[in-house]
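Design review, sub-item: ligand-bound model
Attendees: FS, YL, KQ
YL presented the inputs for the AHG complex:
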Amino acid sequence: MKISSSAAAVALLASSADAFAHRGGGAPHRVRTALSAATEERAPPRMNRPRTKAPVFDEVCETTGVTLGRFLHSHAELNPEARELTVLFDSVGTACKAISNTVKRSQLPSSETLGLQGEGNASGDDVKKLDMITNDILKRALKFTGRMGVLASEEEDEPVSLLDDGSPLSSTWAEKEVIVDETEKYVAVFDPLDGSSNVDAGIPTGTILGVYEYDEGCKMDDDCVGEECTEQERECLANTLQPGTNLVAAAYCLYSSSTFLALTLGNGLYMFTLDETIGEFVLSQADVKIPDDGKIYSFNEANFDRWDAPLRDVVTGWRAGTGANGQVFTSRYIGSMVGDVHRTLLYGGVFGYPGDTTNANGKLRLLYEGAPMSFIVEQAGGLSTTGTERVMEMVPREVHQRVPIVMGSRKLVEEVEGAYAKKD
Ligand code: AHG
Ligand code: MN
Ligand code: MN
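KQ shared the predicted structure:
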């Protein structure tokens, strides 16, 4: 059937507008959600107070939608003090696109990214070549923003200084020339490829990133000696050992059926989806809110018998339909934290990696897995606990410290906390 070009154009516009509305999980007004004082009123007491104003998008290009670039620029206009984050997350977006391509191509016979690197990382995990490659992509992307003070990564034994100050912290970083200017500096903590052991089986993986403000007190003198250096080094290291409550931003990228980027700049959670036809992350869900309740749990159940009694009791109740909400739960567990948390945010439920009799603190790392993902979940109105403590308030003692975690829908996390409280 032949249709006129104008009719085709109208149909195209209508379908893309419709698609945009549906990708947003509802009518287009969700994309226009304004956050400000209203968010402050809604914020549960334990949630970080909004520190920034979120942009409102009254007019949207129906072909491109709201790109990550436009979102960041609008955010910077409303929050001039956070302007430097625009540069940073623009780079993070590019790094996520590059990592997404690398992961996708990794299974091609011509690819050299398969297999083990042949060594373990600081946490004793096998390191895959992809872990190293993605670490390098993200590290370089952050470095070239010129806004980085220090970074800490799952794949770096020690924090890495990105200031050209002769710091021993930068000894693992061969190229030291950094574009240093007088702008605000940040600390980035990240897990470049979460779930990397799954990649050969085509299972989703992700990148997790947290951003803190950098304390300018961290300066290494070129001519320091002995104890003096150790003290300065300790101060620099302290920059990376901040509690989650100090986070100014956090994000994850999920490499799956689509490539997603979920971002919080301290005022709600914003999800972007990579539109490969234009090479841009496009806002697909604004001000995401996790359902308050749910009936999906996501744990490695093989460890059930070794968990703490309160958690075993709660999960037993959920299986039987005798828990607080009376629902018979179902179980979903990918084994990639980013994928499991992404689903939990959208469908509700809980994700966790609790401590057990073999590993008292579970498996996940506080600094670059636990804290940023907890910030994201809290910004969506959920909770994150160790069972007895809010994960966001824990001050890391060391970079690769592990932490037991249960995060997700408010009511379910409260049920777990209640069970632990009853035990004490
Ligand atoms: P990573 O690949 O960065 O080491 O992290 C894997 C983590 C996390 O993504 C996931 O939730 C957990 O390990 C899965 O562990 P189990 O295989 O023990 O269930
Ligand atoms: Mn991980
Ligand atoms: Mn990892």
